[in-house]
Design brief:
- This protein is α+β, with helices and mostly antiparallel strands.
- Strands 2, 3, 5, 6, 7 and 8 form a 6-stranded antiparallel beta sheet that branches. Strands 1-4 form a two-stranded parallel sheet.
- The chain has helices spanning 29-39, 44-47, 49-53, 64-68, 71-78, and strands at 3-5, 18-21, 25-26, 79-81, 87-96, 106-119, 122-133, 141-149.
- It is built from 5 helices and 8 strands; from the N terminus they run βββαααααβββββ.
- The chain starts with a strand and ends with a strand.
Amino acid sequence: MATQLSKPADLLGMVGQDVGTGEWHAITQHQVNIFADATHDHQWIHVEPERAAKGPYGGPIAHGYLTLSFCPVFLDDVLKIDAVTAAVNYGVNRVRFPAPVPVGSRIRGHVSLVSAKQKQAGLECAFGILVELEGSDRPACVIETVVIYR
């Protein structure tokens, strides 16, 4: 269940707390292919399933940046704020990809609030997101992403 807040300022009292763990999301070859087309990254470990089956991962894997691009999805899974006119991706403070995400696997985000500061542009929040890979002890991705709520 998502954390429901009435306004972004409510996040100021949640610094250091877990926000929640979201739903599982399947990673499909179709998604990987579309991402490859959008980014012009057609490396064979992503888009050639037959060749990738003989490669180091035993099959095709998602692009690391495709996994990273799920940040807004993970946040939306666990956090709903009523009085928001815009939520703007401001940047990423840190990102690591400890484990590959095989096509056909599922991922979900475990979200915590690292910091929240009122700025002129809005409430700037840094969220820690641990991307869990179903069936793995290792995370697929560890992220600290920054969002500005207006």
